[in-house]
Amino acid sequence: MIIIIKIRRGFMWGEVVRKSFASGAVILTAAGLAARMLGFVYRVYLSNLIGAEGMGLYELVIPVYTAVVLTITSGITIAVSKMVAEQNARSDPANPARVTVYAAILAAGAGMLVSFVIALNADGFSVKILGDERTLGALLILVPCLPGVVAASALKGYFYGMQQVVPTAVSQIAEQAVKFLVLVLSAGVIIERGAGYACTIAVFATAAGEILNMLVLLAVFRSGGRFFKRRDGSPKEGTVLRKEGRFSGRGDGSPERGTVLRKEEKALICRN
User: For residue 56, how many other CB atoms are within 10 A of its CB?
Assistant: First the structure.
């Protein structure tokens, strides 16, 4: 009798897990489609607003932004989601939060380092590498935004590991909506000030959208009261960071490399 009850419980738990995965996949798919539709509208509006010259400058800067973000965050989301799922299986709410906080600090620290390098060499990057001094303002926009943007990868990993897809879905849609809103509010000024200013505003809109993405995830993360002290048996700080570094290094990175290469190809075409 006991064996039969255990089998029935196991079957019911399996059904719950399958339904949870199915509902999560549906939510992420719907949010992805909505975000892509908003992104499509945004790109069309951006192209019509800033013109060919402005888009050329924009395509010079965005590959740098994309390459930096993908290089810093490569594998972090996967690593955090794996470690959070492992810690959550032990029914300890403190450990998943600790893993996420350490990963966010690690990513934000790397972002601050890259931002410092960009700030010191922005003039040289804009003229010697990008080939147009009008991209200087757009590069400087990236400096304060990068730490927050890359830290969002750890928060995304947390919610994936906890099988909570709604915060990520909402943050994606909010990101696209803010990008479009920034352009609409700045349309009059962009038309008056020319291509260089248009490029700066376009990059700012992209960064502002991703910052809002991070803030939405952070607000949901904080609302659960997940900041706790380390308990007995939980991994130490050094162990967490070493595991995150190892998992990040194992990341396939093929999609990221392909994205970076495509962006760099566009940049070279625009420069030439």
Answer: 18
Contacts 24+ apart (CB under 8 A), 180-187: 180/38, 180/41, 180/42, 180/45, 180/205, 182/208, 182/209, 183/42, 183/45, 183/46, 183/49, 184/45, 187/49
Highest mean pLDDT among 39-43, 151-155, 262-266: 151-155
Q: pLDDT averaged over the chain?
A: 77
Q: Which residue has the higher pLDDT, 28 or 213?
A: 213
- Phi/psi class of residue 225: alpha, beta or left (left: φ > 0; alpha: ψ in -120 to 50)? left
Secondary structure tally for the chain: helices H, strands E:
8, 0
Of 261, 210, 221, give the one whose Cα is nearest residue 80. 221
pLDDT digits (tens, 9 = 90+) for 216-255: 999 999 886 554 444 444 555 555 555 555 555 554 444 4
**Tokens for 242?**
């070493």
Question: Encoding tokens for residue 24?
Answer: 């999560």
Continuous H helices in 89-236? 94-124, 136-161, 166-193, 195-223
Q: At what angle do helices 76-88 and 136-161 cross, to 10 degrees?
A: 20
Block residue for tokens 């509208």: 41
* pTM of structure: 0.75
Rg (CA), the chain: 21
Indicate if the pLDDT at residue 258 is higher than 70: no
Distance (Å) of CA 261 to CA 54, 249, 264:
22, 19, 5
74 phi and psi, to 5 degrees?
Answer: -55, 115
Length of the chain: 272
